[in-house]
Amino acid sequence: MTSSKRSESDWQGLVNEFLICKRKLESKKDALLILSKELDSCQQERDQYKLMANQLRETHQSLKKKYRELIDGDSSLPPEKRNQVNLGQLLMDSRERNKKLADEIKELTQRLSETQGDNKLLRMTITKQRLGDDEVGVRHFPAHEREDLVRQLENAREELEHSLKTLSDELQDVKAERNVFKEKAERLNLELNHILGGQEKRIIDVDALCMENKYLQERFKQVQEEVSLLKSNIQKYKTALDRRRNPEIGGKSNSRALTGVLSPKQVQGLLSEDNGCSLPATPQSISDLKSLATALLETIHEKNIIVQHQRQTNRILGNRVADLERKLKTLEISGFWSLPGECFLNADHIFFHFPFVTIVFFFWLVLIIYFTRIPIDYLFFCSFCQALFKDQHRMFKHFIINKQCS
């Protein structure tokens, strides 16, 4: 009896273990199906990323080819014409960015190869599990390792998406910068052709027009303030003349106090010791002193306004000098300012560098006027400087034409 009971209990235990193993096997089958689906989706994403990487590589090669064409120029032209426009310095930044993009593409290809290796390893383990080698599959890829592998694949996909977005943004920036450099190069080519060709129709410089517009706006504001100041002075003179013509209103004391229009002799006479000590304490003397004080305050205010106008004008002139120096530096960097193969002591070369001497003379003249406070007409001074620079530009153009003809 006891042996039969034991055999029945053992049989029940074996049946239960068989059912448990069967359920585990079904769960493993479901897990394998899920992993196979995820593997297919990962393969599709890998193919998409590979296609995107190839497209980016092709666009990069096309952009590199275009940049080389811009740098080398037309091969049919002689080397003297091709060397006139130096675009190497303008495209230096774009080359550096292209190098960075190439490094990032290499990194993406390396990551893609790593993901391919991971997918191959995962496929091998899945085939082993399908063939019945459950022990090997469980030994090499337990549940937590599979979760880690899936998490790593998801992180790699997110990194690839992020890097793809950054590459597309940088590509747009490079395209925009290329267009800017292209427009600038075309404008420089037009200006250079105008200088070398000696055409009468001048090309409009947008930067110079913007700078001239700013200067004219500042001058217009200053002229408006000066007009308002002159109107107030005219009103003061008018009231003073009216008071002189009407002796009944002001009398002798008011005729002497001209409400802001006083000469230095009148002020000295009013503030002299004899007259000051002998002034009686009458309402007329008090009114005279008040009018004198207001006149002095108004003259001080006018002088302050004039000083402010002079400072603003000096600031405008300083900004224009800084812009001119910046343009000279750009010309020196681009190679349009000096001619190679000539001695500096040559007469033609000295004539060529004469605009630089003119600019230095103009700068020192502005400093002398600023520190010595010489009263000059700034509008006449600016027109004189503008005429001087136009003359130097014309002389420079004739010099280039003569050198080209010779």
Q: Which range best describes the helical content: under 10%, 10-25%, 25-40%, 40-55%, 55-70% or over 70%?
A: over 70%
Reading the helices and strands in chain order gives HHHHHHHHHHHHH
Q: Give the CA-CA distance, first to last residue.
A: 131 Å
Overall shape: it is: elongated
Domains counted in the coordinates: how many? 3
SS class: mainly alpha
Percent range for β-strand residues:
under 5%
Mind describing the biggest β-sheet?
A: none
Please give a handful of descriptors for the protein shown.
406 residues; mainly alpha; 3 domains; 13 helices; 85% helix; 0% strand
Question: Could you characterize the architecture of this molecule?
Answer:
The longest helix is centred in the first third of the chain and has 71 residues. The protein folds into three domains: 179 residues, no CATH class; 96 residues, no CATH class; 69 residues. The protein is built from 13 helices and no strands. Helices cover 85% and strands 0% of the residues.
